Amino acid sequence: MSEFKNVTIVKKANVYFDGKVVSRTVKFEDGSTKTLGYMMPGNYDFNTAAAEAMEILAGQLDVLLPNSQEWVAVKGGESFDVPANANFQLKVHEPTDYCCSYFK
């Protein structure tokens, strides 16, 4: 899906890591939520509350998922899932555009 219809967008940005990771929250009529964001190159450590699927729209990164010892390369057009209440790490190699979907 290249666009969303009938949504509410939260104007205030979610800003992390001194502005190197920024996203906007998109709310859907069914109560679901996504964020659309952009990450600059760097190493990042994230914690989840809800389970999430991270779709990489453009760019390239490596992800270290919970309970894994191996970094996995992910590029534009690919995605990965992270369980709720977990920690994951990213090594972003080039500016990266993403869409994150959250699940209850």
From TrEMBL:
Its EC number is 2.4.2.1, 2.4.2.2. It catalyses: inosine + phosphate = alpha-D-ribose 1-phosphate + hypoxanthine; adenosine + phosphate = alpha-D-ribose 1-phosphate + adenine; a purine D-ribonucleoside + phosphate = a purine nucleobase + alpha-D-ribose 1-phosphate; guanosine + phosphate = alpha-D-ribose 1-phosphate + guanine. InterPro entries: Ppnp, RmlC-like_jellyroll, RmlC_Cupin_sf. The keyword Transferase applies. The keyword Transferase applies. One of its GO terms (molecular function) is uridine phosphorylase activity. It is an enzyme of class 2 (transferase). Belongs to the nucleoside phosphorylase PpnP family. This is Pyrimidine/purine nucleoside phosphorylase. It comes from Cycloclasticus zancles 78-ME.
